[in-house]
What does this fold into?
Amino acid sequence: MRHYIEGDCDKYFLYFWRMICISILALKNAVMASITDSAYVFTKVNEFLKEAGKTPLFKIQLVGFTEEVRFNNGPYTIRTDAIFATVRKTDLIIIPSLAGHASSATYINKDCAIWIAEQYKNGSEVASLCTGAFLLAYSGILDGKQCTTHWEYANEFRYFYPSVTLVDEKVITDQDGLYSSGGSTAYWNLLVHLVEKYTNREIAIRTAKYFVVDLDKNNQSAFIIFQGLKDHEDEVVLKAQKFIEQNYAEKITVNQIADRFNVTRRTFERRFKKATRNTVAEYIQRVKVEATKKQLEIGRKSINEIMYAVGYSDIQTFREVFKRITGMTPVDYRGKYNKG
It folds into this structure.
């Protein structure tokens, strides 16, 4: 049972009090900062609660395969508080970010996936930080649900876990007791979100201010660099992707591309979506928007000049597509990244 702090009172809103157990996984090939930062946040929240005259709420433990974990064969080690076999029940599991090749890092930690799934089945909540989403998905409990991860690994994630809905434009996701965060430092937003879930808005704001976190940031689209999924074996689709990326400034159509590679439009669209996880129209738009972003970042052309250069002729359509994909208008994007 989860227990929260009642926002408008000076007492815990529960029938009886007990500490919430947070198990932070000290995994092989984990990013150590995501482990230590997670522990520090909830330790600090306990201090904030004491300052407010309340009892500390969180019991924080590091859980691993062994009593000592060495990170990435480097000089740093962490001593765990418990090993998986000894943890019978926990309230929240935090899966840290994984370093290196995400799928390989997941595989070497696969033995804890069953433990994660069993804990979730027994009522635990589970949060993945950045590429930790790969291990969360590997456990099977994300099937049919949403999650996010670092945009750099979005194609790989979609390839290996097609039964999970990846919303890589999101900074965090929250669904059925499963949480995830986007790229790198986005896990700070998830940690503050979890603080609010288990305490209240006041404590969350206090935490966000202390750690200088932009509270309620919910979109990472502006950071995404579109890299079409090419790790597939459909040669026709690969050639079509190359054609689009070399001719995005032209007014190319789906029919034109299908005819060029001697396949029917219906067959081409089906094969393209299966291979790239994008429709042909979406792919063309994303390539155009990526080219626009580069020109906005380093160039001095006007918005209209860039619009024509990437193959758009209607400013309203151009703005709508750009904002839908990046979460920002072209003017705002230039203001964020181009200081020239």
